[in-house]
Design brief:
This protein is an alpha+beta fold. The protein is built from 8 helices and 6 strands, in the order βαααβααααββαββ. The protein has a single domain, classed as H-NOX domain. The longest helix has 17 residues. The protein is globular.
């Protein structure tokens, strides 16, 4: 759902729950846990119903830096996006959802999942334009995190649905969001 220019952009608890899966939490260092607490996110307690998008962006950056210190921030963000999908896929709901998505295939799964992509916050707007049997232009009005985080999410989503040789290529990036080309076999 889109927000007005005066409405506070927030990320709901479900976004944090997807990121901080049971397996992902095992990878958190004491330094990262302390940094998250300083940002107002205590992973040892239930998540707040919502956090500002600025908090979300800071959490994504902190996790990217701590979990993948050997990588550049864009590359680490990409891997963190993949981790988020992987964590969700190992939940009871995720297992059921990905079983269904494998049955209907990558294209239909992509189209269906993009409709609910915005369910983790109150501001995301996704554009998806089919350009071929296995290719799409994907746009997202995410301007607070690096596009690589969401590109990693989409790449791993497609792979989890059975797509092979997935390519997610950034085509434009500006102050309002980004566009990427998605292709697979």
């Amino acid at each position: 759902m889109a927000t007005s220019s005066t409405e506070t952009r927030v990320v709901f608890a479900s976004g944090f729950e997807g990121l901080f899966s049971k397996d992902f939490r095992k990878r958190l260092t004491p330094a990262l846990i302390a940094e998250l607490k300083a940002l107002g996110v205590n992973i040892e307690k239930p998540f707040n119903p919502a956090y500002t998008v600025e908090t979300w962006a800071s959490v994504i950056n902190a996790c990217s830096r701590h979990i993948y210190p050997e990588l550049s921030l864009p590359d680490a963000s990409w891997k963190l996006g993949r981790d988020t999908v992987d964590g969700f896929a190992h939940t009871m709901i995720g297992k059921a959802l990905f079983t269904m998505m494998k049955l209907i295939g990558p294209a239909r799964s992509l189209e269906r999942s993009m409709r609910s992509y915005a369910s983790t916050n109150n501001y995301t707007k996704v554009t998806l334009q089919r350009t071929g049997p296995t290719s799409y232009d994907f746009g997202l009005n995410e301007k607070h995190t690096l596009p690589q985080y969401d590109m990693g999410v989409v790449e791993w989503l497609l792979q989890m649905c059975g797509a092979k040789n997935v390519s997610v290529t950034l085509t434009t990036h500006d102050a309002e969001g980004f566009m990427a080309q998605l292709t697979w076999e």
